[in-house]
Amino acid sequence: xxxxxxxxxxxxxxxxxxxxxxxxxxxxxxxxxxxxxxxxxxxxxxxxxxxxxxxxxxxxxxxxxxxxxxxxxxxxxxxxxxxxxxxxxxxxxxxxxxxxxxxxxxxxxxxxxxxxxxxxxxxxxxxxxxxxxxxxxxxxxxxxxxxxxxxxxxxxxxxxxxxxxxxxxxxxxxxxxxxxxxxxxxxxxxxxxxxxxxxxxxxxxxxxxxxxxxxxxxxxxxxxxxxxxxxxxxxxxxxxxxxxxxxxxxxxxxxxxxxxxxxxxxxxxxxxxxxxxxxxxxxxxxxxxxxxxxxxxxx
Length: 299
Description:
With about 300 residues, the chain is α/β, with parallel strands linked by helices. It has 9 helices and 14 strands.
């Protein structure tokens, strides 16, 4: 009987997932992959399993990844000092070369993991097909080198890959009109790509559980957050640190047409499946004010 109860629990989970599979079938979901889930090999495998499962049940996933920790590691190995201005890495020409090499290696490693699970994947950068056009980003008016602000996204290459049953894996290297390469913040790249591809969902894998009403109170995690509620949290000063630019990115993505944006803890195994396929989820979903709410905090 105990074994039967376990099997019935598994069946209940699948039934709970069914309406989400039906609702988002054939819809694009952009997964911004970063944080500890990129460093821990076991977590990495579980994230890739999640993304592959999303594809096999009918979603159209796109992975956008960063690699800042690996860039720093390899820069240190070759004796390049990491400098920051206002929290942003100064990317001179040698650092840009390291960044591009490291990000492309990460990219192809992820492609290999996906294809080991039987799904075709293709790794590209924002330079391919002039996908991510950018201009030099300044930090407080200061030149920080080859760091780019996105000016235009051409999603044709991405759509061609999806139409031919490939799972696109994208690293955030862009180019300007003169052909110079630029390192782009991966969060910014994911938002711009999700907007250009008219994604139904954008999911951020982070090293935090989500958005809190009060960060010091871990019981105050917000499961669903409307644009108005998000704006009020920011205005009231409840959001700080690295969450502030991330939440602003989420707000911009929703205003640009992405239906739902998820912030979740990538350190939790199978966080993507738990957030997308269960009623409450495990992170925070940011939605439009008039969007359908999947979880009622008062119930």
